[in-house]
Amino acid sequence: FPPSLQVFPSQDPLDRADFNAVEYINSLFPTEQSLANIDEVVNKIRLKIRRLDDNIRTVVRGQTNVGQDGRQALEEAQKAIQQLFGKIKDIKDKAEKSEQMVKEITQDIKQLDHAKRHLTTSITTLNHLHMLAGGVDSLEAMTRRRQYGEVANLLQGVVNVLEHFNKYMGIPQIRQLSERVKAAQNELGQQILADFEEAFPSQGTKRPGGPSNVLRDACLVANVLDPRIKQEIIKKFIKQHLSEYLVLFQENQDVAWLDKIDRRYAWIKRQLVDYEEKYGRMFPQEWCMTERIAVEFCHVTRTELSKIMRTRAKEIEVKLLLFAIQRTTNFEGLLAKRFSGCTLTDGTVKKPEVPLPSTNPFLEDETGTETDEIVMEKSDTDKPKKPKVPDNPFHGIVSKCFEPHLYVYIESQDRNLSELIDRFVADFKAQGPPKPNVDEGGAVLPSCADLFVYYKKCMVQCSQLSTGEPMIALTTIFQKYLREYAWKILSGNLPKTTSSSGGLTITSLLKEKEGSEVAKFTLEELCLICSILSTAEYCLATTQQLEEKLKEKVDATLVERINLTGEMDTFSIVISNSIQLLVQDLDAACDPALTAMSKMQWQNVEHVGDQSPYVTSVILHIKQNVPIIRDNLASTRKYFTQFCIKFANSFIPKFINHLFKCKPISMVGAEQLLLDTHSLKMVLLDLPSIGSQVVRKAPASYTKIVVKGMTRAEMILKVTQ
């Protein structure tokens, strides 16, 4: 629609944008009969045209005055704007005047506030000045009269008040008062030190019967004075208190040696009790004087013991050293129960590092028997851990002096372990191999448990003595005798693979003719091999656990130096050699049967019957050896599986090689060999559970090897057919 129709809607056809004159005329005169009214229609249109002309004329005339009216309205609007600006200016002027008035009022209020604050500060400062001046006078007077009880409270107040005048030190009078306070403090310090020197003279050991109230109050004053005064009092008192100890336990005295170390600790216990009774109330509780005396005693004792042990190092024996260390650690434990260790932060002794949480199954209660067997199972790691023992802040405060001499202990353990290994060798030779015991499985050699029980004792004992270099030295000793045990006790007692009569090796038996005797291991020898294998497996697992526990015991900086991988590899070699011996024994027992197979006249076989005699012989040897080995390796099933796999990998290729030697061969002979091969295949598949009342499914890895190898043998025979 055109814009005019949007503003003024109309239904008149003449106003339409798409107006068509022809259609409009046809709508007026739709038929010929309607033309009779043409005059009437023309008159109506003319009338409408005249009306439109009149309307247009009126509108045009009405627009002649619009310009004049617009100018008049614009002038009126300009006048109104001028009036509005005038009113706004008046309002702005009044606002500025109001603001100025408010500023003047607030300025007066601020001045009053400042005046009030200054007045309050002045009054407070004058009061403080009055208190300071009076306090200084009183302080000087009380100091001369040694009224330490009143001085303690007054001095703290004077010092606090003087802090308020730090910013006024430029004023001569204030500076003079500050200097008088410092002079009074210096005088008090010197006077108190002189009083203590008089009461507790450094020369001589005779002490008064008890403390005085003056000295007790003097200690309260020392709390307020320079900390050096307090430290000097403590130092002199402790030195005088321990002077008798230095005389009684001089290096040239009999009681100074390690065998009478108990007397040192008994002396300090008596002295601490005597101190509590006589001087316990003289010193403030927060000074921890009892603990300080004990700590200084420990420092002195450590120094004195170090000197005397350096002088008489050749006289130190293991029992004497352990006795002294035990008594010393007991004393350190007693100190930990009695004191908190708060004074150690002032000294040179560092608190021991927090040990790692231990899951060591070796660590039983120290009161337990040392002959208990140690069971190192993986399930031990799932057991609840022992609650962590609180740290002893006094650990090593005296016993640290023994560490340079622990080489005596380490050398002693070296000798003891050497004797232990020799005893194991002698016992094994005297008692002989373990008796066959197929009901309970292969037993671990008793000497293995004895060795690790002794290791546990040494490890726990050494960790109590030191967690530093001595633990590394002990670990080296452990490594040495783990290797010796592996070679002398385990590997050294494995049966030999050479027959005692003919001197033939197992491999040479392949050349023996059918019917010759094969040098097989006896039942006792098979049980011995299995027992050594089980022992080596136990040692391997236990050594791994031992390495972890040693790392938990040693200092964090030395953990990387604990490594028993070489010893674990040694036990792995023993295990591998044991399995190889078992495989070689069974393999050699089957060799004559395979040799007989290759020498049979297979071209003369006329009919297929039951399995051949050589198959029966192989099965017989398997049924003789495998149940014994399985029952004796019941506790180490994975190594029995390894035995089965290694035997299959050795027997099957050898069987296939002998098949190629069976020439010439007839069709019937090939069928007989195929039947024999199937029989051997079924026996080998049943090898892990042969002769057992409990039938277990063979491991998949083993079954795969047997099926693959024997299927190849069957395919060779089928091709031959």
Question: Could you walk me through the main structural features you see in this protein, from its secondary elements to its overall organization?
Answer:
It is found in: Endosome membrane; Golgi apparatus, trans-Golgi network membrane. This is Vacuolar protein sorting-associated protein 53 homolog. This protein is mainly α. Among the domains are: 150 residues, Tetracycline Repressor, domain 2 (Orthogonal Bundle), CATH 1.10.357; 121 residues, no CATH class. The longest helix is centred in the first third of the chain and has 80 residues.
Tell me the layout of helices and strands:
Blueprint: H1 3-7, H2 21-28, H3 38-62, H4 66-145, H5 148-163, H6 172-199, H7 213-224, H8 227-241, H9 243-248, H10 261-279, H11 289-311, H12 318-338, H13 407-431, H14 446-465, H15 469-490, H16 523-553, H17 565-599, H18 613-632, H19 637-661, H20 667-685, H21 700-720
Helix pairs in contact: 4-5, 4-6, 5-7, 6-7, 6-8, 10-11, 13-15, 14-15, 14-16, 15-16, 15-17, 16-17, 16-18, 17-18, 17-19, 19-21, 20-21
User: How many strands appear in the DSSP assignment?
Assistant: 0
- What's the CATH topology label of the domain at 402-495 and 520-575? Tetracycline Repressor, domain 2
Count of helical stretches: 21
Helical proportion, percent range = 55-70%
Distance between the termini: 106 Å
Main beta sheet: strand number and arrangement?
Answer: none
Membrane topology: Peripheral membrane protein
GO biological process, one term: retrograde transport, endosome to Golgi
Protein name: Vacuolar protein sorting-associated protein 53 homolog
Family: Belongs to the VPS53 family.
